Amino acid sequence: MSMRLIAAALAVATALWGVLAWRSHLISTGDAQGAARVQAAWDAQENARNTATARDNATKFRNAERTAHEDAQRAAARRARDVAAAAAVRGLRNEVARLNSRPRPYQAGDSGLAACAGEARAARELFGESAAAYSELAATADELRDQVTGLQDFARTVCGARTPTLESAPHGF
Q1: 173 residues of the chain, pLDDT tens digit each
Q2: Cα four-point dihedral sign 57, 59, 62, 68
Q3: Separation of first and last alpha carbons in the chain
């Protein structure tokens, strides 16, 4: 009878070992499936993040290119205005020099006419200098306008700000 007990105990032990081995196999299979699901979710999230980053980078690049192009266009227009203003000032100075080089239309002894001619000469010189100063001031104002335009464009496209209207901001600030 002891042999039967030993055989039964061995059969129970073998069955128990088989059940535990099967349980261990099921757990490892479940762990592998769970790990695969987690990895797939991680990969999908990483792909979505990479796609979003690439899309954002492409948008930033396009905005940077557009902004650089618009800045270059504004700079070219400003240079053209500066050249035209410099030509106008040069023409004005040439005209002042031509008027100042004319022969004196008054008698040598007439001091009133000489004073008027001197005042006219001084007025022409001041006018020429004022035109040059005005041209420089206009060039500075153009540069500042272009800078403000660029900053407003940046705020509108990058920061999502809206441009103020006269109804909402009476001073345009």
Answers
A1: 688 888 888 899 999 999 999 999 988 898 888 889 999 999 999 999 999 999 988 888 888 888 889 888 988 988 898 898 888 888 888 888 887 787 766 666 677 777 777 777 888 888 888 888 888 888 888 888 888 888 888 777 776 655 555 445 444 44
A2: negative
A3: 105
What token pair was written down for 49? 């993040």
Structure tokens given for 126 = 């001041």
How big is the chain, counted in residues? 173
- DSSP for 6-47, written as a single string: HHHHHHHHHHHHHHHHHHHHHHHHHHHHHHHHHHHHHHHHHH
Q: Output the CA–CA distances (angstroms, integers) from residue 84 to 88, 91, 96, 98, in the order listed.
A: 6, 10, 18, 21
Could you tell me which residues come within 8 angstroms of residue 64 by beta carbon, excluding any fewer than 6 positions away?
none
Structure tokens given for 31: 């762990």
